[in-house]
Amino acid sequence: MSRIVSIAITHHRLPLDPPFKASWDGRPRRHFDATIVRVRDDGGREGIGSGDLMKGFEGHEDLFVGEDPRRLERHYEVLSHINFHYGRCWPLDLALWDLAGKVTGEPVWRMLGGRADRVRLYASSGVLRDPAAMAEQAERYIAEGFPAMKVRFSASAGGRSGWRDDVKALEAIRARAGDRLELMVDCNQGWRMPWDTTLPWTFKDALAVARELERLGIYWMEEPLHRSDRKGMKALKEATDIRIAGGEMTRELSEFRDIIEERAFDVIQPDVALVGGITGCRRLAFQAREAGIAFTPHSWTNGIGVLANAHLTAGAGDAPFLEYPYDAPEWSEARRDYPLKAPLRHENGWLLLGETPGLGIVLDEERLAATRIG
């Protein structure tokens, strides 16, 4: 019998020089923060998770210490209550799955159903480059074996001058890549950074953009309207041939349930590090499949979050692609995965998960010690 003996949370910061200017944030990012959650059992094993800041968790350790880490549904219920009263503490769910895998000797993808031990990736860009540079980036993705690329549109006045300029960048990519890449577009209209008061698109704005994306053969159109406008998303879904995707920052599983029941989206994108953990999002994978909706998680996080979303997608889902945040040099694999001993490496556009028990995480303890801020 395995029993949890401790839970430790640390915070880390990697300076970014040159900075990363994300399309969804007009302010250059000069550092990248990571929160690491460690759950230890009485056998000396350690489960690792990462994601949100774990605000509000302090003082609740006693709800888990002494329990069997494999009681994952029980732990999910407790975390759902903490989520209601305090903050999003789902990284602990990831750590519990990692520890449960180490206790049982199985990789998480097999514990989740074992559909596959690998996932096909799409390269998720983050920087607003000029059209020629975007086309060059697409060419590099093709050379590395990626089957698809996600292109970002400007979230606010901090980016390009408007969606027509965004379309020009997309046209340059399509002209260069032809049909060698599937292209997705993230419209960045679902949510804003706290300082950004730019209004999201109206329905007619989004429909005008959708007509342009139809012309360019885009695979999906992500977050084209504010996150609360489910009726608008459904109307847009019915008015265009483009798949409508969203939900990356949705906070409650019940909201996803309603999205699925209403057939409001073609593609849902929960992130196990932000909503429900692996335990909760596993439910969504099955619900979405029954409704004919694609399930492909958001995973713009560090390599721990990428791995957790990949294990769920491989083990229980059947997504055509999984997000792989990767836009070198500003967002390289080394920057993204600095908590890890070695960055994740795709193989010709695939992420192989292997047979290592748990999530397969190996931390770089020296780097974590050097970057610790709390």
**Which CATH architecture of the largest domain is right?**
Alpha-Beta Barrel
CATH class annotation of the largest domain: Alpha Beta
Please estimate the helix content. Answer: 25-40%
Summed up, the domain count is: 2
Estimated share of beta-strand residues: 15-25%
How many runs of DSSP E, i.e. beta strands? 12
Radius of gyration, whole Å: 20 Å
For the termini, the CA-CA separation is 33 Å
In CATH, the topology of the largest domain is named TIM Barrel
Main pleated-sheet profile? 9 strands, mixed
Count of DSSP H/I helices: 12
**In the CATH hierarchy, what is the superfamily of the largest domain?**
Enolase-like C-terminal domain
- What is the helix/strand order? EEEHHHEHEHEHEHEHEHEHEHEH
Weakly predicted, low-confidence segments: none
Task: Write down the overall geometry.
Answer: globular
Secondary-structure-derived class:
alpha/beta
* Oligomerization state: single chain
**Overall pLDDT confidence:** 96
Q: Mind sketching the topology for me?
A:
Blueprint (H helix, E strand, L loop, with lengths): L3 E17 L8 E13 L4 E5 L21 H14 L5 H14 L3 H4 L6 E7 L6 H14 L3 E5 L10 H15 L4 E5 L16 H13 L4 E3 L7 H10 L3 E4 L6 H10 L4 E2 L8 H15 L2 E2 L7 H14 L5 E4 L7 H4 L13 E3 L12 H7 L3
Parallel strand pairs: 4-5, 4-11, 5-6, 6-7, 7-8, 8-9, 9-10
Antiparallel strand pairs: 1-2, 2-3, 4-12
Task: Describe, in plain words, how this protein is organized in 3D.
This protein is of the alpha/beta class and 374 residues long. It has 2 domains: 4-106, Enolase-like, domain 1; 111-352, TIM Barrel (Alpha-Beta Barrel). 36% of the residues lie in helices and 19% in strands. It contains 12 helices and 12 strands. It has helices at residues 72-85, 91-104, 108-111, 131-144, 163-177, 203-215, 230-239, 253-262, 277-291, 303-316, 333-336, 365-371; strands at 4-20, 29-41, 46-50, 118-124, 148-152, 182-186, 220-222, 243-246, 267-268, 294-295, 322-325, 350-352. Strands 4, 5, 6, 7, 8, 9, 10, 11 and 12 form a 9-stranded mixed sheet that branches. A 3-stranded antiparallel sheet has the order 1-2-3. Helix 6 runs parallel beside helix 7 (230-239) and helix 8 packs parallel to helix 9 (277-291). The longest helix has 15 residues, at 163-177. The radius of gyration is 20 Å and the shape is globular. The two termini are 33 Å apart. The mean pLDDT is 96.
